[in-house]
Design goal:
SH3 type barrels, 5-stranded antiparallel beta sheet, alpha+beta, BirA Bifunctional Protein, domain 2, Arc Repressor Mutant, subunit A, 3 domains, 8-stranded mixed beta sheet
Length: about 350
């Protein structure tokens, strides 16, 4: 198993010179405030050029203040992702299920970057980014992706059971994520069908599964997860739905590296079990996390909207609902569901 940053030999892309400097500057600011004149001089920059780099980081969501003493400082503590440190904390069983774990600085989309590569022959390939420029959710919706604030994770894996079974994959990934978060934070994390991670009726994260068939009857899937850890105010004001982050819910920002360890310890065995046994063994676990069970919802379809009551999951992962014309099974590709009171 390889653990690398963006400069590793098989990383999806290398840092640009500006990105490399931004990483260096943030690593210095993590340790202590930096003297603007001395730091600029040590990197053969004018103070004006350094100020432009600081402005770019602020635009990306990093809160940097300028002090009267001529220093730059972080407005609050910051932790960068560390692939080697994460791998060192994983159990031997989790390490054995990984092909590689990489952290990029800034890329368009972690899902797209993995889909552009051949699927891993064995195990799971995990890619994270400190920032995404075109992060997206289900049906192409924009996902706010500020720098070094949240988790943007994609996991690439082959599945021997073939394409037909993958219909329930996003549900299983959601179960693993919710159970990991509940263990790590003690919060009452729930799942909103088909792919939203909820806390207190607000969106904490979302999943996006992409892929297709592979030679020999196998399937390949890339599972993308966006998780709000600490959303900077400048980005929060542009989000057009009810949302929440872990920092707000916990009263402090959790370690993203420690959180990632817990997520992988749950995701990797869950995906292995799904490949071997399918969705059925996971149905009781979904039921325990279901945010919609028994509730009245509004179903939005291209053919029109209607109201229904949620009955639970079907064995194929569809949502069983009771509408005026009787029971129906809804599929994630067909509908969008919003609770009437959300």
């Amino acid at each position: 198993m390889n653990a690398q940053g963006a400069s590793g030999d098989n990383a999806p892309m290398s840092d640009s010179p500006a990105e490399s400097f931004h990483r260096t500057l943030l690593q210095a600011l993590q340790r202590a405030p930096v003297d603007a004149a001395l730091f600029a001089a040590s990197h053969a920059l004018s103070q004006e050029a350094l100020a432009r780099h600081v402005a770019a980081l602020r635009q990306s969501g990093i809160e940097i203040i300028a002090t009267k003493a001529g220093e730059y400082a972080l407005a609050q503590p910051l932790q960068l992702l560390d692939a080697a440190a994460v791998c060192a904390q994983l159990s031997a069983a989790a390490q054995a299920r990984l092909e590689s774990l990489q952290v990029a600085w800034c890329i368009a989309s972690t899902n797209e970057a993995l889909l552009a590569q051949p699927a891993p022959a064995q195990g799971a390939r995990v890619l994270l980014a400190e920032q995404q420029t075109v992060g997206r959710g289900r049906r192409g919706r924009h996902w706010a992706s500020p720098l070094a604030a949240n988790l943007y994770l994609s996991l690439d894996r082959r599945f021997g059971a073939g394409l037909a079974r993958l219909a329930g994959l996003s549900l299983v990934a959601g179960i693993a994520v919710a159970e990991a978060l509940r263990q790590h934070t003690g919060l009452d994390i729930r799942l909103k069908w088909p792919n939203d991670v909820w806390l207190a009726e607000r969106k904490l994260g979302g999943l996006l599964v992409e892929g297709g068939s592979e030679p020999g009857g196998k399937a390949r899937a890339v599972i993308g997860l966006g998780l709000n850890v600490r959303m900077p105010p400048a980005f929060a004001q542009h989000i057009d739905q009810a949302w929440v982050d872990l920092a707000g819910a916990l009263g402090q920002t959790p370690s993203r590296n420690a959180l990632l360890v817990t997520l992988l310890e749950h995701l990797l065995p869950a995906l292995e079990a799904f490949d071997a046994q399918g969705l059925k063994p996971f149905l009781p676990r979904w039921q325990a996390l279901d945010a919609l069970a028994g509730r009245c919802i509004e179903v939005k379809t291209a053919a029109g909207d209607f109201h229904a009551q949620v009955l639970g999951l079907a064995e194929n992962g569809g949502l069983r609902v009771l509408a005026e014309n009787g029971e129906q099974i809804l599929h994630s590709a067909e509908v969008s569901v919003r609770t009437n009171d959300a």
